[in-house]
Amino acid sequence: MSGGKSRRPAPASGRRGFPKSAHLLKHADFDRVYREGKRHFSRPMTFFYLRRRTGAPGPRVGFTVGRVLGGAVERNRMRRRLREAVRLELAALKASVDVVINPKKLVLTSEFGELVKEVGRAFQVIQAQSEKNSPKAEERERS
User: Fold this and answer.
1) Are 123 and 92 in contact (CB under 8 A)?
2) pLDDT digits (tens, 9 = 90+) for 70-102
3) Total Cβ atoms within 10 A of residue 136
4) Burial profile 1-20: b = 16 or more Cβ within 10 angstroms, e = fewer
5) How far apart are CA 63 and CA 93, in angstroms?
6) pTM to 2 decimals?
7) CA torsion angle for 86, 117, 125, 98 (degrees, to 10)?
8) Which neighbouring-strand residues pair with 60?
């Protein structure tokens, strides 16, 4: 291909994606998750999450990969690996939550399958916590 951008073929209809609506993009949203949210720690990364009361249903996921983790090439590689792991496990997270993932250096050297398992485990914990703290659960406890 000379000079032009290469285009990826459109995904098959049965393939799960990571749509823009599932991305956490605004700085204010990241700050709110850090300030008011809960944490889930795993060996290669830390998950910060906060249940949303309004807005579109479903999860939104963002990544923060600081300069302390390496140069641009390493940081982008971490982000790509995490984005793919999230794409593979996103269907397991149904709750309306904002999730911010902070990777550690270990993300670069870990087996990809292990990263996917860690993301899946974290999403299970986040889903269980959000169900436990949902308004419907609080109503049931009061009655």
Assistant:
1) yes
2) 999 999 999 999 999 999 999 999 999 999 999
3) 8
4) eeeeeeeeeeeeeeeeeeee
5) 16
6) 0.80
7) -10
8) 98
